[in-house]
Write a structure and sequence with these properties.
binds flavin-adenine dinucleotide, Uridine Diphospho-n-acetylenolpyruvylglucosamine Reductase, domain 2, 19 helices, alpha+beta, eight-stranded mixed β-sheet
């Protein structure tokens, strides 16, 4: 049965809204254990911030933008998923590239370590300090600089919140090329630094493709100006890519130019119930061939993901319970044309039995309600206890294989759910237990990464390596690649002050 919510095709403004983020962050009031103790890390030989350093920072930023009060600094020390807690004593809030440059030149000179922080929604502990690194927050670098409505080139500062930028370009008939559940909080600079993927990568590609130019600051304070808005620029090495996905370890992103696609005139979202995972894949193949260029998202959720999310977030599903669910979205330029295509696809797949039940929405409020179920999954998990969060790429044939394997390995003490971006071969596996337990960690890791490696997958599809995964990076990168990464790090940050303890393991 397909239930068609239809009140004219119109553009959706889905507000994931920070309430999702806030509910997750404050689900439990207990402070996470210090990362250094929990994961047994030794402090490296960096300088310690002194009163004279604070005075210097105040002289370039002003008093209010140097935060030292313990309770004000605390949220900058804890990551969104509450896995990690650092011990920083100071947060700096620059407003300009020049200020960032001065801060880094000084820190480099004094060997003071720095942890760059955007919206602090990262899920691998990269955005928070491990020891007393200085937090460099970009929350005040939030200006939109220019928009070329014809080419779609937007230039803005790194601390702009993704959702705010998206709202801005929507008023000019454009959209941001990426969208994720954390959009109400994450920064575009954080997105670039993590090479964030998100919900519509299937349609609009990754940030290596959308990013036109970048301005970044090296560890010694040198400003690298590659802030062009050109689609084509083959003048030597493509330096901007060094900063995409390097998680603040090679330089600080201060400004960026990004290509914004045209705002779709017609949006359709379907939410379907399916019998088994095999059918999820068969339906994906059929959706690609039937919907072609208008397919913009194809997300998979297992029953356990949806059941927990509906319960914890007090949401209602538009359809009854099924073993698997698919959320499918189209973005097109002609409502009649898209509706005809979608209807033909639906009636075919209802007949074949791939879709057992479903709902289709074209009205913004209904579309928003469907996306909200999918986007609330991470926050809903956190309301049940401590979450181990995995984000891996796997060949589609093996995409779901790890979920039943882990359920068997962990027994009834843990909840294991699988959901993700099927269109990109990227599954998120969240394992929830009541409290952090080192033994459970030992059962999960390195087992998960070994299995991913056997299947030729990637141990991090989109969240990055951060603090939590450097020791597992070798499962996806060989020694020669790691050696070149180390050479680049040494060249760009010889004193290692930028986001230490993250991304690169010590032994390469
Ligand atoms: C509910 C939820 C849903 C999510 N969904 C997705 C998803 O679909 N796809 C996805 O890819 N991720 C997703 N994430 C993870 C996260 O939102 C992304 O990694 C995001 O890009 C991080 O941006 P941020 O501004 O919060 O960066 P932060 O978390 O602050 O930082 C992330 C990393 O980037 C570095 N960094 C931040 N800003 C800068 C800068 N200006 N210069 C240099 N380095 C910097 C930090 O040091 C850190 O290493 C989700 C997270 C949540 C909580």
């Amino acid at each position: 049965m397909i239930n068609m919510y239809n009140s004219g095709l119109s553009i959706v403004r889905y507000l994931a809204k920070s309430n999702i983020i806030v509910q997750g962050r404050y689900a439990s009031q207990a402070l996470p254990q210090l990362s250094s103790e929990k994961y047994d890390v030794k402090r490296k030989n960096f300088g310690t911030v002194q009163a004279a350093d604070i005075n210097y920072f105040k002289s370039i930023l002003s008093e209010q933008r140097v935060v030292t009060d313990e309770s004000d600094v605390l949220p900058f020390n804890i990551d969104w998923i509450k896995n990690c807690r650092g011990q920083s004593k100071v947060v700096l809030k620059p407003k300009t590239t020049e200020e960032v440059s001065k801060i880094l030149a000084y820190c480099n000179e004094k060997r003071l370590a720095v942890c760059p922080q955007g919206g602090n929604t990262g899920l691998v502990g990269g955005s928070v300090p491990v020891f007393d690194e200085i937090v460099l927050s970009f929350m005040l670098m939030n200006k939109i600089i220019s928009l070329d409505e014809i080419s779609g080139a937007l230039v803005c500062e790194a601390g702009c919140i993704l959702e705010n930028v998206d709202n801005y370009v929507r008023n000019h008939n454009l959209i941001m090329p990426l969208d994720l559940g954390a959009k109400g909080t994450c920064h575009v600079g954080g997105n670039v630094s993590t090479n964030a993927g998100g919900l519509r990568l299937l349609r609009y590609g990754n940030l290596h493709g959308s990013l036109l130019g970048i301005e970044a600051v090296k560890a010694d304070g040198t400003v690298i100006d590659c802030l062009r808005s050109l689609k084509k620029d083959n003048t030597g090495y493509h330096l901007k890519h060094l900063f995409v996905g390097s998680e603040g370890t090679l330089g600080i992103v201060t400004k960026l130019a990004i290509h914004c696609p045209v705002l779709p005139k017609a949006v359709t979202v379907g939410f379907f119930g399916l019998e088994n995972f095999d059918n999820v894949l068969k339906l994906f193949k059929s959706a690609k061939s039937s919907l072609g260029e208008i397919l913009s998202a194809y997300e998979m959720m297992d029953n356990e993901s949806i059941r927990g999310t509906l319960r914890n977030m007090k949401l209602t599903s538009p359809i009854p319970e099924y073993p698997f669910y698919v959320l499918m979205e189209t973005h097109g330029s002609d409502a009649d044309h898209d509706t005809e295509k979608v209807n033909r696809f639906l009636s075919k797949e209802m007949d074949t039995g791939l879709i057992l039940n479903g709902t289709v929405a074209t009205e913004p409020g209904k579309i928003q309600a469907i996306w909200k179920i999918r986007e609330s999954i991470p926050a809903a998990c956190m309301m049940d206890g401590y979450v181990f969060c995995y984000d891996v790429s796997l060949p589609l044939a093996n995409y779901y294989q790890l979920v039943p394997m882990l359920r068997e390995r962990l027994g009834s003490n843990a909840s294991v759910i699988g959901f993700g971006h099927i269109g990109d071969g990227n599954i998120h596996i969240n394992v929830t237990i009541s409290d952090f337990d080192k033994e459970v960690l030992g059962v999960l890791e390195p087992f998960i990464f070994e299995e991913v490696s056997k299947l030729q997958g990637s141990v991090s599809a989109e969240h990055g390596i951060g603090f939590r995964k450097p020791q597992y990076i070798h499962y996806s990168k060989d020694r020669s690649a790691l050696g070149l990464m180390r050479d680049l790090k040494t060249l760009m940050d010889p004193n290692g002050i930028l986001n230490p303890y993250k991304v690169l393991p010590d032994d390469v």
